[in-house]
Predict the structure.
Amino acid sequence: MVRTVAMRSQPAPVKIMLTLTAIVAYVLACIVALAFGARWVLKNDPLLKQQQLLDSATGARTDDHPTLTHH
């Protein structure tokens, strides 16, 4: 772990809070990156696009999707 001059001169509770803040920021950045990656895959995956083309070729409509309930 890289220790900066600012970290060495801080009291222990401040070091803990700075470390905790950095860890939380890193985890949130990872979650955001995974969400954008999942969104990209859902939009651009060739197998998903092929399935959508097959559905449209067979005449399936989006409002006929079996997992949706219509009242």
Notes: The chain is about 70% helix and 0% strand. The mean pLDDT is 80. The longest helix spans residues 12-44. The CA atoms of residues 29 and 35 lie 10 Å apart.
